[in-house]
């Protein structure tokens, strides 16, 4: 079977690497995955890049269906992700129980890491503006273009990283303190679909069906995601 191509948001990398992709390969399926933030994948598609399927934020999938890029008949709701905070292993764990303590943790950190293009980083940039601490946080922030913010904890560049919990879990040698407080939390939904006119539509549909199976759903839960209902 020829492999099909999937452009995929980083939020599901941990469950995909651990369970979803090996399971599909065991059934004879083959996938070549391009990993990146949703916004970066949208940019690639706008620049003419080709693929057979995407897994992105629900808002992005809605937009691509609206412009005829994706086949709406193949759409699958995948999972919901929430944002969290991590520190280096052995580091003091900040109090995240309230919005006020979360705010103080951000101000007390030597450097807060977040991503520039990731959905979590875009939300966080707006959040610190609304909290009135953007100038103070940005003055000492470690802002990565894309990728996993917790890697900066291992390298020593930052002592607090914010990102989707499932993305924090990809990095070893860190301590995930917990989720954002409810008052400032956001739930990011992810969906997937085949590209309109993809010659690999059958293989894509077969793969997307596995994302609704119990093995994938258990992997999502194990990796900090809530499987779609």
Keywords for this entry:
229 residues; D-Maltodextrin-Binding Protein, domain 2; 2 domains; 10-stranded mixed β-sheet; 10 helices; 38% helix
Explain what this protein looks like in three dimensions:
- Helix 1 (13-26) runs antiparallel to helix 10.
- With 229 residues, the chain is of the alpha/beta class.
- The chain has 10 helices and 10 strands.
- The chain has 2 domains: 4-80 and 188-227, Periplasmic binding protein-like II (D-Maltodextrin-Binding Protein, domain 2); 81-184, 3-Layer(aba) Sandwich (D-Maltodextrin-Binding Protein, domain 2), CATH 3.40.190.
- Strands 1, 2, 3, 4, 5, 6, 7, 8, 9 and 10 form a 10-stranded mixed beta sheet that branches.
- Any idea what the shape is? globular
Which bin fits the share of residues in helices?
A: 25-40%
CATH class descriptor of the largest domain: Alpha Beta
In CATH, the topology of the largest domain is named: D-Maltodextrin-Binding Protein, domain 2
How many H/I helical runs?
A: 10
- What integer value in Å does the Rg equal? 18 Å
Overall number of strands: 10
Strand content: 25-35%
CATH 4th-level superfamily of the largest domain: Periplasmic binding protein-like II
Low-confidence stretches: none
Distance from N terminus to C terminus (CA atoms, Å) equals: 31 Å
Q: Overall pLDDT, averaged?
A: 96
Q: How would you sum up the major sheet?
A: 10 strands, mixed
Q: Which structural class do the helices and strands define?
A: alpha/beta
Helix-strand layout with pairing:
Elements (H helix, E strand, L loop, with lengths): L3 E6 L3 H14 L4 E6 L1 H9 L6 E5 H9 L9 E13 L10 H10 L3 E4 L3 H12 L3 H5 L3 E3 L6 H5 L4 E5 H4 L5 E6 L7 E8 L6 H10 L3 H9 L2 E3 L2
Parallel strand pairs: 1-2, 1-3, 5-6, 5-7
Antiparallel strand pairs: 3-9, 4-7, 4-8, 4-9, 4-10
Helix pairs in contact: 1-10
